[in-house]
Amino acid sequence: MNESSLASRSPHGAGTPRLLGGLAGAWRSLRFSALLLVMVASPATYTLENRRRLATQICLTCKQTVPVFTLLSALLSLVLVHIVVVTAQSYGLSQFALGTVVRVLVVELLPLAAALFVALRAGAAMNAEIATLRRTQPGAPRRVIESALIYRVVLPRVAGSGVAVVLLAAISGGLALLLAYLGVYGFTPWGIANFTRTVGQVFAPGVLMALGLKTLLFASAVATVPASAGLENPRRDPGESVTVLHGTVRLFAVLIGIEILSLTAEFF
Amino acid sequence: MDQPDPPPQNSLPEPRVPYAELKATALLLLIATLICAFVVYVMAARGVFEETQDLVLLADDSEGVIPGMNLTFSGFPIGRVRRVELATDGSVRILIDVLRKDAQWLRSTSIFTMERSLVGETKIRAFSGILTDPPLPEGAERKVLRGDANEQIPQVMTAMRTLLENLERMTAADSALNTSLGSLQSVTDRMRGPHGALAGLLGSEDNARKLLSTLERTNTLLDKADKRLFSPGGVMDESQAAITQLHGMLREARDSLKKADALLVDAQAIAANTKDASTDLLTLRREVEHSLRKTTQLIEEINRKWPFARDTEIRLP
User: How far is A166 from chain B (nearest CA, A)?
Assistant: First the structure.
């Protein structure tokens, strides 16, 4: 691992060695993310003290992200619903407006927006914090995992970010459905039957499964990729800002990859 | 892992949140509730909890038919496509779940159509003309009538091309329609003249003027003829008197002829006795000559009277 990393940073390194270095880094990050997820799912993690830390971090992350994102997503939903409804009406296709709004907002945009927001609001900070602490404990990542740093700092933040992504996606999705109903039918209860039927048509089992899986993958990526970037070997890191940048770029790449996979599975 | 290392000395200060575990549990419960509620809502929206009745529609093409699309009656969705499958004979079987509460609208005589428009999704519709017919049985199979706007496009294009060619031919500079319109315009121009439609019909103002003067002269002539014929002492009165006179003369001629007949009878008797009759022959001859003269006069009189009058005047060159 060290050799490949060193090769990737060699002044003569170009082309294939750099590609191999990138692949090795991605594999290392993926394996570390999987380890973190296993630790989050392991009951041994939830000792009394760790539970308190986890709960605290979940509350803090959600407090940082939920109010602002709810407001922003409501605003985004309102604007998009209005644009789609007005455009569809102008083309005489208003019967397709609701389905389009629900599909675009709830299935595609809002989960990605929630993941990006948590990544920017909490992920980058987590990356920087972990990188700072990692400098105090140099060594191989495996040894670091076994240290108290993981339980005290990394795991609570991983859980907090993951929970925040799922919570934001759920809240913003529900809010978008409500705003879509109000945007299309207004303040009347007589459109509920049609609305429900349209929602049922949009959320076929495959789409529902894709939405759930995509949200979980987003949450996992947002929770683990910045942490794994922060836990890179500090001897090879030039500084915290570069570490945060690497982690953010890697996270964006992973999120885009998940979104492309999701779209491919849904539409092809 | 059960005994983690002591924390490093330069670790970050741990934040404190009152009732953190309780709040985190509430958040997790909120997430679980939202997800469960959404899943249940979607299941209800897809009709998982509704009682349905099976209906199978047979079509020859399944293009545009997807599971989940609606079967509508009068614009209201009453059923949903559950599955589309290919039958053993190559036809398409569209399996539809009809809501039990809305199955009353489907009757044994109901007609099902599948319409594919240029824009938008395919629509499956049900039409029930007689709602008193027996209800549609469970699992009924019906043929679906297809109405595809796309299939009509080539025919429409051909008809449109023919129409455009005809239109082009009609609107050409030397077309019959243009010529007719030109003639019509000249006619209407003439109609705008002082003699109106008469000039338009007769071709020019002169012709119209001639016709009008002819009409006036005809009217004058008719007035004169009327006066000549029907005024007191006119031709009609004279004709009436001549006819009366003619009747009298005819009566006299008839009497004379009767006398002639009697004389002829007598002449026969005289012929038998020529000697005795020789004395009466002169008288008879005079009477016959007298009768013939009267007849000749009568004929001449008739010939002189209208309408048998002839121009007997001899004009010298």
Answer: 7
Nearest to B34 among A149, A152, A174 (CB): A174
When pLDDT is averaged across residues B223-245 and rounded to a whole number, the result is 85
Express each pLDDT in B166-178 by its tens digit.
888 888 888 888 8
What tokens were used for A246?
């690497």
Query: What string of H, E and C letters represents the secondary structure of chain B?
Result: CCCCCCCCCCCCCCCCCCCHHHHHHHHHHHHHHHHHHHHHHHHHHCCCCCCEEEEEEEECCCCCCCCCCEEEECCEEEEEEEEEEECCCCCEEEEEEEEHHHHHHCECCCEEEEEECCCCCCEEEEECCCCCCCECCCCEEEEEEEEECHHHHHHHHHHHHHHHHHHHHHHCCCCHHHHHHHHHHHHHHHHCCCCHHHHHHHCCHHHHHHHHHHHHHHHHHHHHHHHHHHCCCCHHHHHHHHHHHHHHHHHHHHHHHHHHHHHHHHHHHHHHCHHHHCCCHHHHHHHHHHHHHHHHHHHHHHHHCCCCCCCCCCCCC
Among all chains, which residue has been given the structure tokens 């092809």?
A268
User: For A203-222, how does the pLDDT look when each residue is reduced to its tens digit (9 = 90+)?
Assistant: 988 899 999 999 999 999 99
Distance, in Å, from the CA atom of A51 to the CA atom of B136, rounded to the nearest integer, reads: 61
The count of other CB atoms within 10 Å of the CB of residue A4 is 17
Note the pTM of the prediction, 2 decimals.
0.63
Q: pLDDT confidence of A59, banded at 50, 70, 90? A: very high
Q: What are phi and psi of B143, to 5 degrees?
A: -75, 140
Select from A39, A42, A106, A152 the residue whose CB has the most chain B CBs within 10 Å, as the one to mutate to test that interface. Answer: A152
Closest among A132, A125, A134, A122 to A231, alpha carbons compared: A134
Q: Determine the residue of chain B that is closest to A133 in CA distance.
A: B11
